[in-house]
Design goal:
Chain A is an all-alpha fold and 266 residues long. In chain A, 75% of the residues lie in helices and 2% in strands. In chain A, strands 1-2 form a two-stranded antiparallel ribbon. Chain B is built from 11 helices and 13 strands. The chains are: A mainly alpha (266), B alpha/beta (329).
Chain lengths: 266, 329
């Protein structure tokens, strides 16, 4: 109960914090819209050249799949790794370790809260814009889509947080995790379908995208495909398996990480 | 009096890798040389409830490392720590409910939000009910005189206002002991004085034990009745602050105001030396192990035509500086 109240308060504080800085939200939304927009224009051209369909996928489906990726990105769960690294480098970790909270759980809720407001703004604006621009595909107009979207959103969020928590916790040992973070982040971006929608992947790469934790953390992009109804149980299973494995790794890492704390500057 | 902190033979070492210049890249990568630094060595200490204690030492002496072991942030390499009957490494969260911490160089407040939000947040963190948070916030606002800037974003506050707010926020749960790591760093003299007075008030009114590290002699002199000095990781002195000068400095100063300016200064007996020469005013330092003050005066007065004499002790800053230098490795 206490944990629930604290988590709720962290989220509320972070939403208030983000609202206090509307300029940052505008810049973030513009950045996402620009990146997503450029890719959509490119794909619109390619799909037109190819006669409107590639690998049995239409431009409309591709647009929504990519939009879901970018909307999910606005949650900025990836920033968990750099937040942990900053805590270690700046010594802020000592403040949190002197409070009656579980450091990692505090940071996770903090990160989630920090991204929630921009996520809702980007998701709502993007949905409205895309509905007008490309329309809503048939795969998105069922209650199954919405229910499974909620499920995959929760599992993708947990998996993303675990991946980036594992990377972030490494900074208790090696302090500067930027090179590793860069590799993991790019793996998530590529295998998650930010540059190329997963439906257009060659077979081997598609398998890697499905079975690796990096691709699995972005299964939200699969929900608009026609194959989703047949594959969603398998994909939930893959996500749950990775959550279990990474959850165990992160728990072990954190229990050892605290003993490694050596706050910079004293 | 009840003991609330007991430290026995506490040690902490840090290991880190260093580049071996004579070894190649691969050897440095896979088999790096490691070095160990002993930040704290066999520190033993007992603190009673309600004490105001200064824990001082030069940079790198081990003060902050000790505080961090007392609050459960760092794990000791050896020795035992008990704070309020709890082991900080095993009962970190339980202990956190009963202690407060302020790290002068780091903020715990939300920079973009008003102070009210930070108070609310810490209240929830310490599991206080809504009405308890409100009541305690009102108490702290009045005690620390925060009302004029409670609704301002923290980043808009002056350093003095922010430090008052930091300390107030760390007291939201009425801790039994508060650890302050350089709380007056960067503050002007007025803000420092106000903060010291507040800390004394809290100590008296709420019986909060104060454990403070500082490089500011004013903090130690005006706030702490007991001083523990640490250097190179070991305790070199632990006594009443008022006793420090008497125990460690065997020196007194004598100011002589002369009838006329001097250009040739006579040689002085052994144990008495010129500390300052300013024409018609000279300052002599007397080694008390060699001369008493009256003996020194009898010996030096025949050399000078004197208008006025002033005898005084060295200030605490000099005492501490001399102690740091005496315990240099």
């Amino acid at each position: 109960m206490k944990q629930l109240r604290l988590s709720k308060t962290i989220i509320i504080m972070m939403i208030r914090d983000r609202i206090a800085y509307p300029g940052r939200l505008i810049v973030d939304t513009f950045g996402i819209a620009a990146r997503c927009g450029v890719l959509l224009i490119l794909y619109w051209y390619i799909f037109n050249v190819k006669g409107g369909e590639i690998n049995g996928v239409t431009f409309q489906i591709t647009s929504w799949s990519m939009f879901l990726y970018f909307a999910f990105m606005t949650l900025r769960l990836r920033d968990l790794a750099s937040s942990i690294m900053q805590d270690i480098k700046s010594g802020t970790v000592e403040i949190l370790l002197s409070k009656p909270v579980h450091y990692l759980s505090y940071r996770v809720w903090w990160q989630f809260g920090a991204g929630l407001y921009p996520f809702f703004v980007a998701a709502i604006l993007g949905t409205v814009a895309l509905t007008f621009l490309v329309g809503i595909p048939a795969t998105m107009s069922s209650s199954f889509f919405f229910l499974s979207l909620v499920g995959v959103f929760i599992l993708s969020s947990i998996l993303s947080l675990l991946i980036y928590a594992a990377v972030g916790l490494l900074s208790f040992w090696i302090e500067d995790i930027k090179p590793l973070y860069w590799i993991v982040d790019k793996a998530v971006m590529i295998l998650g379908g930010s540059y190329l929608p997963v439906a257009l992947f060659p077979p081997l790469m598609y398998k890697i995208a499905i079975w690796s934790p990096f691709g699995a953390s972005q299964f939200i992009t699969h929900t608009v495909y026609e194959t989703w109804k047949q594959s969603y149980l398998e994909m939930f299973g893959i996500q749950l398996t990775w959550i279990f494995i990474l959850g165990f790794i992160v728990t072990v890492m954190f229990s050892r990480a605290h003993k490694k704390v050596s706050v910079n500057g004293g | 009096m009840k003991k609330i902190v007991e430290i026995n033979n506490l040690s902490k070492s840090f290991s880190f890798t260093v580049k071996n210049k004579s070894a190649g890249f691969l050897r440095n990568l896979f088999s790096p040389e490691s070095r160990t630094v002993e930040a704290v060595k066999n520190v033993s200490l007992k603190i009673n409830e309600g004490e105001r204690i200064a824990f001082i030492g030069p940079n790198g002496a081990g003060k902050s490392t000790t505080i961090k072991m007392l609050t459960g942030i760092l794990y000791p390499t050896e020795g035992s720590v008990s704070v309020l009957g709890l082991d900080p490494t095993k009962d970190r969260k339980k202990l956190a409910y009963q202690i407060g911490t302020v790290f002068g160089q780091r903020s715990q407040l939300f920079p973009n939000l008003p102070l009210t939000d930070s108070f609310e947040f810490f209240g929830v963190m310490y599991d206080l009910s809504k009405s308890e948070i409100q009541e305690r916030t009102n108490e702290l606002v009045s005690l620390f005189d925060l009302s004029s800037f409670m609704d301002q974003p923290v980043r808009k506050l002056s350093l003095g206002q922010r430090m008052r707010a930091e300390i107030a926020a760390s007291l939201i749960h009425k801790p039994k002991i508060i650890f302050l790591d350089e709380p007056t760093i960067g503050l002007d003299v007025v803000a420092k004085k106000a903060l010291r007075e507040l800390l004394i008030k809290i100590n008296k009114e709420e019986k909060t034990t104060i454990f403070l590290t500082s490089h500011d002699v004013g903090d130690i002199e005006s706030l702490c009745e007991r001083t523990v000095i640490i250097n190179h990781g070991s305790v070199v002195a632990d006594m009443a602050t008022s006793e420090l000068g008497k125990t460690f400095v065997h020196e007194k100063y004598i100011d002589l105001l002369l009838e006329e300016k001097m250009s040739n200064y006579p040689e002085l007996p052994e144990g008495i030396k010129y500390s300052e020469k300013q024409g018609d005013k000279i300052t002599l330092s007397v080694d008390l192990r060699k001369h008493s003050v009256s003996d020194a005066l009898q010996k030096v007065l025949p050399f000078f035509a004197v208008l006025d004499i002033d005898v005084y002790n060295v200030d605490l800053e000099t005492v501490i500086r001399e102690m740091y230098e005496a315990t240099k490795a």
